[in-house]
Amino acid sequence: MAVGKEEAVVYHPVKGFKLGTGSAGIKKPGRKDLVVMEIPVGSSLASVFTLNQFCAAPVRVAKKHLATGALPRYLLTNTGNANAGTGEQGIIDAEACCQALASKMRCDAESILPFSTGVIGEPLPVAKITAGLESAIANLSEEGWEEAAHGIMTTDTRPKGASDQFEYQGKTVTVTGISKGSGMIMPNMATMLGYVATDAEVEPNLLQRLLSHTSDRSFNRITVDGDTSTNDACILVATGQSGVEITDLEPVLMERFTQALEHVMLSLAHAIVKDGEGATKFVEVRVEKAGSTEEALKVAYTIAHSPLVKTALFASDPNWGRILACVGRAGVHDLDVSDVQIWLDEVCIVDKGARATSYTEEQGQQVMNRENICIRVILNRGGFVDQVWTTDLSHDYVTINAEYRS
Amino acid sequence: MAVGKEEAVVYHPVKGFKLGTGSAGIKKPGRKDLVVMEIPVGSSLASVFTLNQFCAAPVRVAKKHLATGALPRYLLTNTGNANAGTGEQGIIDAEACCQALASKMRCDAESILPFSTGVIGEPLPVAKITAGLESAIANLSEEGWEEAAHGIMTTDTRPKGASDQFEYQGKTVTVTGISKGSGMIMPNMATMLGYVATDAEVEPNLLQRLLSHTSDRSFNRITVDGDTSTNDACILVATGQSGVEITDLEPVLMERFTQALEHVMLSLAHAIVKDGEGATKFVEVRVEKAGSTEEALKVAYTIAHSPLVKTALFASDPNWGRILACVGRAGVHDLDVSDVQIWLDEVCIVDKGARATSYTEEQGQQVMNRENICIRVILNRGGFVDQVWTTDLSHDYVTINAEYRS
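Output (structure tokens, whole complex):
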């Protein structure tokens, strides 16, 4: 189950960036579970990783390889096994997979960044992955996006991709990305993998700044169940092969590029929420007139994480009392509840801290029947606004997570 | 559904404290939904209330009446309607109910403390409650505990009560209590009502100290879904009619009384968790060797609130990776993950930050099949220990909360 229909994605290839998907039979024989991406020489790369202190082995190895300062040449992703909670053996296993790919591609093992997603705590099946590499390498192609979007899926019910293009001085700039993730979605990159590439030329420091900025406004604003994974990572590669360079010196171009990048990142993040485990609704929780960004997010996440609000959303029940109770327990200092207003889309449900006098159950029900809903809380304490995106909590969520390993 | 069998409670009456249960037909005709408790002159009373900033009207009125400094003479509880999010009209309605009972009992309205639990945001049916008062008053009796335990239930599937007695110099001291609550259970008194009475003599300041201390170790350590209600309250009354006085000057007696009080409070709190909405397991999350109490609770609550851990518990799946991921994201500063050990009852599942080498899936499965489970995290950072109690997350939880209002 997922919210809305699956939208067809036109994947514009990114000049120089190749993807190959293969099969290692990690969980099921024949399943596409291995993806190799090739980064051309001369590219820049930026990355963000999980903040969970139990970083999985591949995250630790990727960070170590990045620390050499050399440009990574390959991204190696397996699904079905997260290689997390596997201690020192996990590190050895992740390095072994890098080494195997490096031997085949005739490069250093440090030029490979490994990514793993799936069950935590089981030993990585290194031999299977090594044996499967050939099938992925054989498919390496600039046209490989769609297959790779399938190849990185775990409990995802749909592939997730987004692509944007714009023209600049007769040249076309492309930004294309894929992502995976459906449970354990939380700020700080929860079980999410994202790979975005562009053929713009962007020097590494600027690229890192752009990735940090846009991931903070996209992947770090989504939550399904409040859990943060040990394996999350988002990689942004700029191959430069469009011949268009993005710099601070050309603000108009910079603006246009940032728009395209944000569009892709936000599409990928929203796609993850819509495919949230068991999701039947896509919900924006927006907090306005807050005293600070921190305060806005505190209230937004308290609502977005509340099982009582989420089950009410699943039941299409305009139970505004549960939303109001969340605002009251969000820990906002000295909150004057009589200043609080709450809206469901265009319907004001709470005014001056109590049910709005104009509100009728029918109005609330009409909004709740929708698949896309905005819960808007107006605190009237200042000028800050922020929002997060989330889903409801359904029977399917319980089923999926109670049965994931069986 | 609830964890374990319903245990028979022997309610020892508390000399001078009377309870009467009646019917006001608030949600369903004939349902017992109204409880009046009578406090004899000469008693002491202590109270703790919700920390949710959206206090419901009855909480605000109760606090106002307590502020007069006079001893309350009656506690008036209705179920079916929480009188929360009802603005100024809610205050007027709560006062009207107090006034109606005061007229009948020939006392001031300020001598009544009102309590409401049920749906948020609907106007309190004052006329129904007023009309139902007579049926509750007619039953006032020291023997009324068991009926009252039923009368304060909402989505509870069982009444909750506990009672303890001890002898002191030939006299018997009794502590008896009832509670309600099954969803929205969180620290800070989440949708919970608790009424405890003793025939010991305790001066008000000491009684408040004892209630604050024991509620912090019982009601404030339980969590079902992380939501905190707008209506929670716990009242402790000491009638003094046993003739035994508890004071700081008699530490042995004080210790014995505190034990009895803690036993009752903890039994009431655990009963709430076991009756948690849809609960199939009763889980203690215990964090040992933490750097501080705050740190221990941070880790304990992160685990206890994780939907992924809770669904794994529901599935009896020893998915220790999800527990480990919680420890990693709990926000413990400078955590050395290689120091962390995790146990499921007597089975060590994580050692040195990875799966314990001695661990087998069969061992974990054996523990997970139990109804009562202890998740024990050893941080090896200091000398602090604390624990919380919680439940799993089941299909029934979703069903109950998605359908509560229909």
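Chain B touches chain A through 65 residues (CB under 8 Å).
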